[in-house]
Amino acid sequence: MSDLAQTNVSKPLLGTLLHEGVYRIVMQRPEKMNALSRDMMSALSAELSHAAEDPEVRVILLGAEGKVFCAGHDLKELTLARGDTDGGKATYQAIMRQCSDLMQQIVRLPKPVIAVVTGVATAAGCQLVASCDLAMATDTATFCTPGVNIGLFCSTPMVALSRNASPKQAMEMLLTGESIDASTAKDFGLINRIIPRDYLDQVVQKYAEAIASKSAHTLKVGKEAFYRQLEMPLDQAYDFAADVMVENMMAKDAEEGISAFLQKRKPEWSDS
């Protein structure tokens, strides 16, 4: 694993650090506003895959260096593709598919992913925040889907945004392209908590460690079930959730957790 304190000479796209089961992934291209270039998306996808397989990783924090959390797609990269014989269509299709796969990878990851936003999250950067299971932000963080301002409706960010905010709130962001502050983002349901910058690292770490202390098996089962039932009609959702609950009850960690609770002791998870 790389260290967050890298020199600028060979600084990778991402910095990582594992502590107490909490795996920090930090985008390290502030000079490019941490844009989701093809290389950045590939790096994120590879790091998430690694985190998913590492048994020491129980919770993932996704953050960024600089004043911009993520500026969305790399517009210079998109513009350069216009010189292709097809006007860039094949490249655009590949980039949008790659981005969609990355967002779905986060949702399907068997471990919780928490966005830590310290700056501007715009367009696909806002989509990235919305795709994470939880999101923490400083009081100076801002969010927007400004594609409409440059003739490009934020259609793919819309998918994640509309699954966080209410339809009218999501449409307000998509149609106006205006930025909203952290307080409004919390009201919209885009983020969970607002934390003063000076206390962000310690509060987020403690918050993540609390989640990391749970059974990894239980978190995996719960996260998968949560997203699957969201798209189901009410009766199907209850049938599905009841089946999940029964299977969960049969797990070793459920037996251990209930026994520990009744015996007033700390559970010893086997993650199974």
UniProtKB/TrEMBL annotation:
Entry keywords, A to Z: Fatty acid metabolism, Lipid metabolism, Lyase, Transit peptide
Gene3D superfamilies registered for this protein in UniProt: 2-enoyl-CoA Hydratase, Chain A, domain 1, Lyase 2-enoyl-coa Hydratase, Chain A, domain 2
Stored Pfam families: ECH_1 (PF00378)
Signal peptide: none
GO BP annotations, alphabetical order: fatty acid metabolic process
Protein family: Belongs to the enoyl-CoA hydratase/isomerase family.
Task performed by this protein: May play a role in fatty acid biosynthesis and insulin sensitivity.
Designated name of the protein: Enoyl-CoA hydratase domain-containing protein 3, mitochondrial
Organism annotation: Roseibium limicola
Classification lineage: Bacteria, Pseudomonadati, Pseudomonadota, Alphaproteobacteria, Hyphomicrobiales
